[in-house]
Specification:
The protein is of the alpha/beta class and 227 residues long. Helices cover 39% and strands 20% of the residues. The strands form 3 sheets. The protein has a 5-stranded parallel sheet, with helices on both faces. Helix 2 runs parallel beside helix 3 and helix 6 crosses helix 8. The longest helix has 14 residues.
């Protein structure tokens, strides 16, 4: 699942991004309201973590603009503004939760998962399925043929990307930017190694091989023709 963080405090923003990535989420971070609003309107994020006191457009204004334009993405305010009036204002503007700084990351993570589990519309898929391979986004669990498969956070993120875009050949550059948040370097084999390890866990021991290599192009997850 993809989370957008709008936080102007660099230390807090980087801390959140690192922690949420280690929890298996794909994270995008920006430090001002204007860019945050643009990314929220144009992207496919599942949750927005939003500070109130931002340069330029503040968090209240970002949320108001989002709701005015019909964007129903869940929003969690994370701010130092701890007055009851501020909490009420945030919730009345359409936020789903309000957490005051300083905060416990464990509590933030629990709230994030609760919001995502609940969803705004109740229609957001929380599981992905391809053949007998299942991925539970909330429990961070993967099974194949009913067998539990343990993955690292990066492997989970890579598999989620492949499953969300099943049947589509994904170039290494896209995988690098989406899962590792880095520009693709042709001299590194980090993508190949990660795919090889994931394939060993997902495909080894199963007759049908789901992760395919398309030479010179990238990787695709799909049911093989002979399955």
């Amino acid at each position: 699942m993809k989370i957008l963080i709008v936080e102007d405090e660099a230390k807090t923003g980087n801390y959140l991004r690192q922690g949420l990535r280690e929890a298996g989420f794909t994270v995008e971070l920006t430090n001002n309201g204007e860019d945050g609003l643009h990314l929220a309107l144009q992207g496919d994020h599942h949750l927005l973590i939003l500070d109130v006191m931002l340069p330029g457009m503040n968090g209240w204004q970002v949320l108001q603009n989002l709701r005015r334009q019909g964007k129903e993405m869940p929003v969690l305010f994370l701010t130092a503004r701890d007055q009851v009036e501020d909490r009420i204002k945030g919730l009345e503007l359409g936020a789903d939760d309000y957490l005051v700084k300083p905060f416990s990351f464990a509590e933030l993570l629990a709230r994030v998962r609760t919001i995502l589990r609940r969803g705004r519309s109740g229609t957001e898929a929380t599981t992905l399925q391809v053949a007998d391979l299942g991925l539970d986004l909330l429990r961070r669990r993967v099974t194949r043929g009913g067998k539990r498969i343990d993955l690292t956070a990066k492997e989970f993120g890579l598999l989620e990307l492949l499953m969300r875009r099943k049947g589509e050949v994904l170039p290494r550059s896209l995988i690098a930017s989406q899962v590792w948040d880095m520009n693709f370097d042709s001299d590194t084999n980090v993508i190949e190694v990660a795919v090889r390890r994931l394939r060993a866990k997902i495909d080894d021991g199963f007759k049908s091989k789901l992760i395919q290599t398309v030479r010179g192009m990238g990787y695709v997850l799909e049911e093989s023709a002979g399955a």
